[in-house]
Amino acid sequence: MVTAPQGAAPAHLAALRSFVAESGKAVAWLTVVMVLLTFIIVVLRYGFNLGWIWLQESLTYLHVAVFSIAAAWALQQDSHVRVDIFYAKMTKKNQARVNLLGSVLFLVPFCVFILLIAWPYVANSWKLLESSREAGGLPLVFLLKSLIMVMPALLLCQAVINITDAWKTLRHENPV
Length: 176
Description:
Layout: H1 11-28, H2 30-48, H3 53-76, H4 84-87, H5 92-128, H6 141-172
Helix pairs in contact: 1-3, 1-6, 2-3, 3-6, 5-6
């Protein structure tokens, strides 16, 4: 059995970390597309009195994709919302304790709950190949609803990384 050198991440953990990061980076550029699309929709609507449901719905699809796929990457980059009054002043070991407990007690159960609750909803949408209720809307609602499953799955991947990193800090790092 080959083990990673002290201080180096095991290959599977590095691959998981890379997967979460690359997933987030892959959809981050869609925010630029969303801004341009919003501009186009406004110009068409108020400048030319034109509007298409599919164009407006595509903006919703992009928004959901960015939010749900990039959420785990934001957590990985420590870019999520946190009340930092106490955390910033903590030692690295205490921060690791907070991250470990937060991941185990809150993040993992939340993600598992969402996956369990969403599965029948998403599966039914796929069964029907659900499309927009609006005339002229996008016929891809089943794909949109699938993102409900993607977000907690990616967050679970990041939870594994957080738990491993916190555990490593608690086991190997000197208190600051």
